[in-house]
Amino acid sequence: MAEKQEECTHDCSSCQLNCPSKGQAEIEKDPLHPSSTVRHVIGVVSGKGGVGKSIVTSMLAVLMRRRDYGVAVLDADVTGPSIPKAFGAKGDILSDGNGLIPLSTKTGIQMISVNLLLEEETRPVIWRGPVIAGTVKQFWTDVIWNDVDYMFVDMPPGTGDVPLTVFQSLPLDGIIIVSTPQELVSMIVEKAIRMAEMMNVPVIGMVENMAYVRCPDCGREIPVFGVSRAEEVSKQHGVPLLARVPLDPNLASLCDRGIIELMENDSLNGAADAIEAFCRG
């Protein structure tokens, strides 16, 4: 064992040893573009796909912009980018010779996504993991982010190359875990929590998406996907439950039309408050 430890690469993510210091090694973060200013970086993650990370990311960005913060979204879901669609963001990503200039939405949210670099937004990105991970790094190092208070990183599901790259390369202040009411939610949350622990990244809290549908007649909450276990799971893992977001046809329509910045849904106000308080320390 001692001989193997002498050969340690200090990359705990690929190490098979059960070392006492596993997950504690300091990993050098990639440098931000010298012309950029980004004060806080928040990852939005999940252990599986289809839980609505992108819509939660978009809603949080809109809410923080309404609080007059400088806001940016780094779309790290390279093979399934949907952030530009929600904001109706179209146009070429330009370079000033010094770096890439992110696109700005109607309310001034800065954004970078692989869909903004493709000639056709429906063209699939058929790249291997290392190429995708390298693209995400470039979104951080080569883009000129102008006076950003909160950057939200929309991460792909799971614990593969890209989430690992974000955890290791970007200076995440903390993460928001997105879940749904289904029975397997506990496993989803636990995977995300364990990865964050191994990477020494704090978990700010959990958001339960698609938690219920509100009856338009009587206002009763209808648990379409089963009875919520969010509070039980949050207590079990010691992670605050920040919000329960209902299924909202109006919100879905706004995303489809690219005008999510007009949303009137305030279900994530508590999560926005928690992010502010967490980053203030």
How would you describe this protein?
This protein is an alpha/beta fold and 281 residues long. The chain has one domain: P-loop containing nucleotide triphosphate hydrolases (Rossmann fold, 3-Layer(aba) Sandwich). The protein contains nine helices and twelve strands. It has helices at residues 2-6, 53-66, 83-87, 129-141, 161-169, 185-198, 230-237, 249-256, 269-280; strands at residues 38-45, 71-75, 94-95, 100-101, 103-104, 110-112, 148-154, 174-179, 203-208, 213-214, 221-222, 241-244. The protein is globular, with a radius of gyration of 19 Å. Mean pLDDT is 84; it is low at 1-11 and 20-25.
Produce the secondary structure layout.
Blueprint: H1 2-6, E1 38-45, H2 53-66, E2 71-75, H3 83-87, E3 94-95, E4 100-101, E5 103-104, E6 110-112, H4 129-141, E7 148-154, H5 161-169, E8 174-179, H6 185-198, E9 203-208, E10 213-214, E11 221-222, H7 230-237, E12 241-244, H8 249-256, H9 269-280
Parallel strand pairs: 1-7, 1-8, 2-6, 2-7, 8-9, 9-12
Antiparallel strand pairs: 3-4, 5-6, 10-11
Helix pairs in contact: 4-5
Sum this structure up briefly.
By secondary structure, the chain is α/β, with parallel strands linked by helices. 31% of the residues lie in helices and 17% in strands.
